[in-house]
Amino acid sequence: MVHVGIGYDVHALVEGRKLILGGVDIPHTKGLDGHSDADALMHAICDAILGAIGEVDIGHFFPNNDPRWRGTPSKVFLEEAARQVKSREGTIVNIDATIIAQEPKLFPHIAAMKTNIAAALSLAPKQIGIKATTNEHMGFVGRGEGIAAMAVAAVDLKE
Ligand SMILES: [Zn+2]
């Protein structure tokens, strides 16, 4: 039986931080603020996977007030989500995600993001869909104050 899950995440764009999305260090004047590397794309995918298996969100596994996870690369969180699926004898069928960012242009980095996410989840890159869109200059994303990501995951579970 295929179960689906949804995930959403957003982080503020601030000066003095690296911009990491899908595990790719993207050249930009600002980066995403957060306790870990603030990779909003990977966090949204984590929550989609965990949602599909009826689990709580990724923040439950890696509390953002725990100093152990300060600056942690978010692939660690994806690896944990994959472990949770495996512990239920499930398999991830596919992931689809959209990044919403006014700047910078993300298309040149999409292939590398797919490679990183597929590696963290032990999947093939063709099982990962990633799109990027702007917010047409509207709202906090459109003003460049933050970057959001949403994702869905399909997970095949035995029962
Ligand atoms: Zn996050």
What does the average pLDDT come to? 96
What is the helix/strand order?
EEEEHHHEHEHE
Percent of residues in helices comes to 25-40%
Helix-and-strand structural type: alpha+beta
Span of the ends, CA to CA: 6 Å
Specify Rg, calculated over alpha carbons.
Answer: 15 Å
List unreliable stretches of 5+ residues. Answer: none
| Bound small molecules, deduplicated | zinc ion
If you had to describe this structure to a student in words, what would you say it looks like?
It is built from five helices and seven strands; from the N terminus they run E-E-E-E-H-H-H-E-H-E-H-E. The protein has helices at 40-52, 58-61, 75-87, 110-121, 139-142; strands at 2-14, 19-21, 24-26, 31-32, 91-100, 128-133, 146-156. The strands form two sheets. It has a five-stranded mixed β-sheet. Strands 2-3 form a two-stranded antiparallel sheet. The protein is globular, with a radius of gyration of 15 Å. The model has no long low-confidence stretch (mean pLDDT 96). Zinc ion (ZN) binds next to strand 1 and helix 1.
Short synopsis of the structure:
With 159 residues, this protein is α+β, with helices and mostly antiparallel strands. It has helices spanning 40-52, 58-61, 75-87, 110-121, 139-142, and strands at 2-14, 19-21, 24-26, 31-32, 91-100, 128-133, 146-156. It has 5 helices and 7 strands; from the N terminus they run E-E-E-E-H-H-H-E-H-E-H-E.
